[in-house]
Amino acid sequence: MLSRARFKIGFWASRPRRASCRGEWLAILLGVCLLSACAGAGLPDHLRSAFAVVPETGFNRLFTRNGGGWTGGDGTLSVALGDGRMLWIFGDSFLGTVNPDGSRPTDAPMVRNCIVVQDGQNLTTRHGGTIDVPDSFFPPFAPGEWCWPADATVEGDRVHILLHRYHQLRPVLWDWQWTGTAVASMRLPDLKIERIVPLAVANGVMYAAFLERAEATFIFGVSETGTQRMVHIARAPPGKLIGPWEFFTGQEWSSDPEATRSVLAGVSSQFSVSALDEDLILVTMDDRVPFSADLVMYRAPRPEGPWQGPCRLYRAPEASTVLAAYNPFVHPQFTVAGRLLISYNLNHVSDPSVLYRDASIYRPRFVRVDPAACLRP
Fold first, then answer.
1. Quick one: which of 119, 127, 214, 358 could link to 114 by a disulfide (CB 3.0–4.6 Å)?
2. Model pTM?
3. How many beta carbons lie within 10 A of that of residue 249, not counting itself?
4. What does the pLDDT look like over 92-128, one tens digit per residue?
């Protein structure tokens, strides 16, 4: 993958959605909002009314963890499990503890992926291996490989998570290669992995984002040609994600994955798609500009498009020439009165040691976004 395709820690491989306002998560949301006064605490009235985006301090505090499991990572996808719990999914993640001065021990364990189960204000980390020698929750397919997770969806008593397979080409930063995509199925309520099924994909499309609709589950992916990334769409019948998919050709649906054609260009390697009122929205980094700090939104009346935009939602203030913002994800189960909960990640572009000196960098940032201006005709 190109270095700007997906920002990661860059360690060598040898080193260790959902309708809004549902009762199943209301207690969780209320608890988090008590921490943040629903994202407005500490802001003067004129700032609250003047800006469409404010930090969601409740979630930011919730994921400021200094021990007892996950203490930092990227990815930051989520899905409601239907029993009042939330599943949070992370890629490269630090475990162990954080020092009182905010640094990490140099021997802090790092795994390629893990999950965190939220039950109210309690977060429980699950990973592979043991407490003393942890490993990734989703195991690699072969030696020298690892999996970075993407989006998740719940079908009945199963959770399905998209996994991207990678392997290291050489022991240098960014020199890895995507080798395929799979779907992991976990049983509810214990979240035990039952099977991991490789997907039949083509044209270099990495499928990474789900959109659940009554008529089908749509799966959005991205392909890369030169410096441009393009969106592709597949679909599966409701409740039958593990099975044959159809692929959008630009005019119709086909069972041939080679027939897929793009519907939108200018997106980042990971993005999210969700429903909001009468629109579908796609939130992404603005990949038309290398290393952009802008989170932008496209909208469409249906998955096939036409997609309109982009409209800028937010510029990550932490981003700089050395810190990159990436992985913008909407968490639609936490939407309140049309205001979206969006997370994004930060990482240093060239020096992984910075993440040991300052543990706060490699944690998700949460913001509350009012997209109303972007939804107007």
1. 127
2. 0.87
3. 14
4. 999 999 999 999 999 999 999 999 999 999 999 999 9
Q: Which domains does the chain have, with CATH numbers?
A: 23-375 (2.115.10)
